[in-house]
Amino acid sequence: MSFNGFANISMKDVALDEMPEFKDTLGVGKHTVKISDAKVEAQGKKHTLTLSYENDKGTIRQWLDIVDDLHEKSVEINWKIIKKLLLLLGHEAEETPDVSFFVGKTIGINIKNKPYNGKDQFRVNYHWMPDTSSASTSKDIDDMIPF
Q1: Annotated domain spans of the chain
Q2: Would you tell me which of 41, 50, 53, 123 could form a disulfide with 114, CB atoms 3.0–4.6 Å apart?
Q3: pTM for this structure?
């Protein structure tokens, strides 16, 4: 289909009953999530690693520029973020893996409300490793205290 502008495009075959279900955007705070998608996208000379996170409460994406001649300091910081994330996920992080390595992994993220282009936006500002063990919690503890 060629594009000749927005006007007069046929909408006859657009079925509204087949709309995908959209999840809410995850809000400020700590969230345990799965990485549902990971890809490297190129826009001119700029390359960006895009990570999509989700859990039962919502989704969020993180864009990490990995090649950008105009923002070298940001790129340097992003590589540090990526290396820390790889280490948290159990990768030796001596070299980058295929981008598919990230998909399906569980990670903790912290989301912060951060100004961007004059607006407040939710951003992932750090990763952490959630406790996935079945260690006892306070409700499981029933120790006898010897007197």
Answers
A1: 22-128
A2: 123
A3: 0.76
Residue 21 has what pLDDT?
75
Contact in structure between 93 and 83 (CB atoms under 8 Å): yes
For residue 1, what pLDDT is reported?
57
Residue 8's pLDDT is 82
**What span, in angstroms and rounded, lies between the C-alpha atoms of 66 and 8?**
40
d(CA 74, CA 32): 26
Q: How far apart are the first and last CA of the chain?
A: 81
- Those residues of the chain that have pLDDT short of 50 are 135-141
DSSP code for 25: B
Distance CA 21, CA 23 (A): 7
pLDDT of residue 137: 43
132 phi and psi angles, rounded to 5 deg: -100, 5
Neighbours of 45 (CB within 10 A): 9
- In this structure, which amino acid lies at residue 42? A
Place of tokens 């657009």: 14
Give the pLDDT score at 144: 59
Kindly state the DSSP code that residue 84 receives in the 8-state scheme: H
Domain 22-128 listed as CATH 2.40.50: yes
